[in-house]
Amino acid sequence: WFTTCGASGPRGPTQAQCDNAYKDSNVSVTVEKEGRLRGVQVWRVPATNEAATISAYGAAGGKGAKNHNKRSHGVFISATFQLEKDELLYILVGQQGEDACPGDNPETQKICLGESSLIEEDYRKKKDLKDWAGGGGGGGGATYIFRQKDGIFEPLLIAAGGGGKAYLKAPDSSLDDIPLEQFENSTAVPGVSGRTGAAGGGGGWQDESLLPQAGKSLLEGGEGGQACFQALAKLQWATSGGFGGGGGACTSGGGGGGYRGGHASDNDDITAGGQDGISFVNPIGEIFLHPLAAMETHGEVEVQIYLNCSHCHSDNCKRDPDTNLPVCQCETGAVLANDNVTCTVPQGPIAEGHVPLPLLLAVVAVIVVLGTILTCGSLSIIYHLKKQQLEGARARLQSPEYKLSKIRTSAIMTDYNPNYCFAGKAATLSELKEIPRRNISLLRALGHGAFGEVYEGTVVGIPGDPNPLQVAIKTLPEVCSEQDEMDFLMEALIISKFNHQNIVQCVGVSLQTLPRFILLELMAGGDMKSFLRQNRPRVNQPSTLTMQDLLTRDIACGCKYLEENHFIHRDIAARNCLLTCTGAGRIAKIGDFGMARDIYRASYYRKGGRAMLPVKWMPPEAFLEGIFTSKTDTWSFGVLLWEIFSLGYMPYPCKTNQEVLEFVTSGGRMDPPKNCPGPVYRIMTQCWQHSPEYRPNFSTILERIKYCTQ
């Protein structure tokens, strides 16, 4: 990783700053001390003829004095390039545009605290700001990665900076007004700077800046522009653009740096923010991730040797530091087999060393003799003491009349919780549709569920349904605990409450005869995770899935229905979404309510601790504080989208649950999957907002999905 080395403002870092910043890492750079490349970091490529993925993050723009809720994000973009050993890469890491507040004198500090409306009043009276100006945010600096070829600098990758915010937020602005990220991939298009008004335009790749507030282009040195003279004259409001060509602020915001700089407003409009810059990918590289406005602070650069993990069973691998070759990684609990490709679950402890054979035989003999004596004595005593009790308990457990009577006389009550449709109400068997066992036929086993086997079957005698109707049949073993019976019944009650085309329907139950059955509509397409993995592209066989297939509007509709009915699913994930078929016309449905069922158990938060929770699909407030709301499902839906666009990869690759907890609570979020469109990743990041109130509801998510498919 390459950073700003702790530098901020309009000028770049020094060698001493970067030496200190990288002292605990293997990064070594030379920082240019003078000339037009002052502050640019120079890095020598260590590997030979390696494909490297370079990820660049532009810096965010500065906040306005009374427009400080959210800054304009710097752009993230990633591409793959072929690098040569000892090649020099020049890296300018963009720095955040300066914020207007707190200001340097008492008057500006009053404005920042909301105690003065001097600028608004002046603007309201005169419709211009000749006397009083300032309070806008500086433009964010772009991040440039370039090289020298035949004595000429050649841009490889440029991540644009965000525009500075204006003094005030426009009253009619909304998320829909945010422009889509743009990038160029042709050097034939001039890399010019943005237009300068009262505030400075952002610097481009190669241009000439004539005004002090304009951000300088890369080949001019990339310094940020200074604040406009009106702001400096009256209020001494010195809000500069960030290093990397960020435009200086006036009352309007400065433009962001980029291959082409962002424009500033022609007039010093009190609500006119600076535009973001335009990013760039050299056509000699292959774009890996399209641009997305995602950076909230200074820029960064990551250079990562590309690893092809497609041969690994787990799809995860890392580079061995000794051999420099990719080594497959397995998920927690699994180990790499001898073929170095597949993952297996160990059946027993793995020997760590060789024990001498005579010693081993002696130890085994002693253990066998002592074990036999103790076992025989213990079994004899227990057998005589417990024979009658065990026989009575066995007969009682095998009695269908006893078990059914226990269920019939049990009313399942829940503590009051406004988030559940069962709140404070008794759930009884009378709410379920009992189907006689003679009407049900089992055809073949489909797999093993949470309670017992799941079968494909048919049922007759259902009014209004085809005769016979194909169903999936969940079974409960004849010998089971009372808690398993309660859980089995609760799942049937939950599913039976819903009536929506994107939620698996409960056809009925059969509880009068052992083993007990829950009958669900048959989802012949299987689970979504398996479907996605089967449809990954292969050699000479590209994936046939379209954008419409990937945007899982069906699941969003089902989640909207649950949200409107104040029900929280708690485990929206690809493994819990089922498909009616695998061909054209398939419909996706929410099909597993195990987590929703388990919250009715008193032992829910004690059973297994965090191990039983789907941590990789949960927001921070859920796994830290046990708080579940409809916005919990919003977060999970964002992870589901990531699963879909990665075609079934495990979220947070190579991270354990504990590492995910630490990563997410510290503000970390997953990068977009390869070739994921920017607007789709924007939906994901909105779903992953730290504060639940900032996450969209499912009505808004459906609107965003509709926009992505236009």
TrEMBL record:
Q: Name one GO molecular function term.
A: ATP binding
Q: What is the lineage of its organism?
A: Eukaryota, Metazoa, Chordata, Craniata, Vertebrata
Family designation: Belongs to the protein kinase superfamily. Tyr protein kinase family. Insulin receptor subfamily.
Q: Which SUPFAM superfamilies has this protein been placed in?
A: Protein kinase-like (PK-like)
Q: Which UniProt key words apply to this protein?
A: ATP-binding, Cell membrane, Disulfide bond, Glycoprotein, Kinase, Membrane, Nucleotide-binding, Phosphoprotein, Receptor, Signal, Transferase, Transmembrane, Transmembrane helix, Tyrosine-protein kinase
The GO cellular component terms are: plasma membrane; receptor complex
Its localization reads:
Cell membrane
Protein EC = 2.7.10.1
What topology in the membrane does the UniProt record assign?
Answer: Single-pass type I membrane protein
Which residues hold ATP? K474
UniProt xrefs under Pfam families: ALK_LTK_GRD, PK_Tyr_Ser-Thr
Which part of the chain is the Protein kinase domain? 440-710
Q: Tell me one GO biological process term.
A: cell surface receptor protein tyrosine kinase signaling pathway
Recorded catalytic reaction(s): these are: L-tyrosyl-[protein] + ATP = O-phospho-L-tyrosyl-[protein] + ADP + H(+)
Q: Which residues cross the membrane?
A: 359-385
Check the record and name the InterPro entries matching this protein.
ALK/LTK-like_GRD, Kinase-like_dom_sf, Prot_kinase_dom, Protein_kinase_ATP_BS, RTK, Ser-Thr/Tyr_kinase_cat_dom, Tyr_kinase_AS, Tyr_kinase_cat_dom
Q: What is this protein called?
A: Tyrosine-protein kinase receptor
Gene3D superfamilies, per database record? Phosphorylase Kinase, domain 1, Transferase(Phosphotransferase) domain 1
